[in-house]
Amino acid sequence: MPTAKINxxxxxxxxHGTGFPLVLAYGIGGNTTEWEPQIEPFSRSHRFIVWxxxxxxxxxxxPNADQYTQEIFAQDLEGLLDHLGIEQAYVGxxxxxxxxxxxxxxxxxxxxxxxxxxxSFSAAGLETPPENRRMREDIIRLSETEGMxxxxxxxxxxxxxxxxxxxxxxxxxxxxxxxxxxxxxxxxAHSTRMILNxxxxxxxxxxxxxxxxxxxxxxxxxxxxxxxxxxxxxxxQLVVIPDAGHxxxxxxxxxxxxxxxxxxxxxxxxxxxxx
Length: 275
Hints:
Number of strands: 8
CATH architecture: 3-Layer(aba) Sandwich
Helix content: 40-55%
CATH class: Alpha Beta
Strand content: 15-25%
Number of domains: 1
CATH topology: Rossmann fold
Mean pLDDT: 94
Low-confidence stretches: none
Distance between the termini: 35 Å
Largest sheet: 8 strands, mixed
Oligomer: single chain
Number of helices: 12
Strand order of the largest sheet: 1-2-4-3-5-6-7-8
């Protein structure tokens, strides 16, 4: 399993295929296996790199809460690109991963050929709504006192981001349980705290001049935030995936893949022509 020592911790990543780099991270609680439906189609035309942020799955989980901020996560992404010798890439992610990619783009716009934001509330920089904050505080308490099996049970019942996908059948629910069981409870708790504090001024979004795709499931609670992002980033393209929730790449992988590849093909054409 490839890892890179970045900012003093081990970060796990996988690289598939060849071509212009496409670098994606998953959402809070996820890991690189959640990109399984995308690996084969995306790696046909691009070097598809998936990575696990600190506190997640195969990556290291630092013990202290102050080691988890959106800026530090973005610095980890910078270090990963440096480790791989990548000067510029298509950068993105789902949910928390989209927030990391957005923060990275704000910090290092010259390294981003296109920004891909999927089903992401944290990329908008908005305050977490009170009901969602209470749910996440419950999850933090459970992860620190009862462990990840209890978190999985709670999320499947109470977190609409998760319950919508789990309701699609046993295979989806089992995948979600495995996803949570792979997590370090300390890293997960600190990452969740980071999400609650990932607030920034919307003018930072307005300063993004990079080609941007904003994609969300039709039934995703983050769709209003994605519409907000679409309005703030100049010339951003918005795609809404029918019959999909927060994990749109798993709920509707064929539609998700087609939308992302169509967008990347258009950006590939512009990039190679202008280059």
